[in-house]
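User: I'm writing a tutorial on reading structure tokens. Could you give me a worked example: one chain, its sequence, then its tokens, then a sentence or two explaining what the tokens reveal?
Assistant: Sure. Here is the example chain.
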Amino acid sequence: MVLRVAVIGAGVAGLASVKCCLEEGLEPTCFERSEDIGGVWRYTDSTDGTRISVYRSVITNTSKEMSCFSDFPFPEDFPSYLPHSLLLEYFRMYARHFDLLRHIRFKTTALSVRKRPDFATSGQWEVVTETDGVRESHVFDAVMVCTGHYQGPYLPLDSFPGIDTRFKGQYLHSQEYKDVEAFRGKRVLVVGTGNTGGDVSVELSHVAAKVFLSARSNTWVISRISKHGLPFDMLSTTRFNHFLDWLLPSALTRRIRFRKLNSWFNHTNYGLASTKSSKFKMIINEELPFCLLSGTVVLKPSVKEFTESSVVFEDGTTEENIDVVLFATGYIFSFSFLEESVRSHIDNNRSLYKCIFPPQLEKPTLAIIGLVQLTGSIMVGSEMQARWVTGIFAGWNKLPPASRMMADVLKKKPPVKRNPSERENLKMSFIGYTDEIAACAGVKPSVLRLLLTDPRLALAIFFGPCTPYQYRLVGRGAWSGARAAILAQWQRTLKPLRTRVADEDSDHSVGWCWMCLLALPVALTAGLLLSKRPQLGCRPWAGPWL
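And here are its predicted structure tokens:
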């Protein structure tokens, strides 16, 4: 009997889930409430709040080689960092290539997902949907929830006295921001120094009369462009760096990390961050330091209160004649369609086993895909989750007993962060988490084994970027093109840049430094220990060493 699986949402996680279901011989039906795929990455001018999407000028923070689906590289002529239009085009290519669209029911909203009366034995769910006002009831053997983080704006007005009682200007959440035209010539306050707050401040500085950026926490700013003009994440997200993070004392790695970040510009001089602070977050923005240096963006501390036309900050300073306040304070997630007995146990992703399964269920037939925050691409993490989950649904993989899952959840669960702007500290190591799920799915590559059988590939995997293709070398779903994709990843990265013939050829290869080669014996000797060490709580600020 073919098992029927409901997939809720046709964004990144939903597309990967449908594809993984098909690979495991399952029968997926994907319910997407809008008229197209892409989730938040499908841009729309609408600000009515029915669907959250990116703003017009957004560019990805992770490079194409680090963000692709593991058996479907981006076209080599695509740039390393992508506008939303090209990313959506890639999703369409992926959906067509694997024939996913015929399994998606568009303009169909999942109203409720409830256990069947015999759930304790069958594990089945009753899913009620609505299409054009017509409701239907379905029975599924399993459910994959792929609705993501961004389901509603987080607007904590109670934390900003006077904003909704005294302030006469306009205030809005960044969800409503699409472009700069409505802010031309105005004095704007942006609240929040996440990636969105930084991006919007820079963009507004080109047209606004003045932009103030209110920061409540230490913020380290990273450029997408690393040394030699290569993508930052391709040099920083390597197994070698991950090994060093595990090997060296945390105080030393933190010191090296801060020194590396300050080599671009001194964050203390800019009022952004201090090396003495234990609480901090990192954002990616090449232009913000120059905007601060040129005064087109002025950094301010936390807001104390609002008056009719001004804002008072915690340091006692006041800025007058503020026209617009834009809150870049993050988003919240909710699963209103899930029955209360299930929903009440999901207060954040760490209440789930491996950030996926509610451990209290009698049968493991409900999975939350994509509700994980990593130091790398969520696309890669979501796909890996889907591969493991569909293997469990298909029956060839198993979960541990409920008691062991609960113990694991309690052991790794950190204090709850109610404020989405504070969730940066809950981010998990991209390699640590993805390797952990890959090991569960039986697809984690062995550098030690490859060193004996394919040394060139082993070196590329250990010292080079941890690209998704590594998880298609072995196990179920192995892809014959994975090795070639890994060895050619730098060529695909540089191809879009070489649009003319240079006067002289330059050495654009990425080699191994002598320190890396000297470290190889030690690293490989410790490889077995590292492969067995739990990585879910790995330090998120471990970063670029090369």
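What the tokens reveal: The longest strand covers residues 108-115. Residues 530-546 have pLDDT under 50 and may be disordered.
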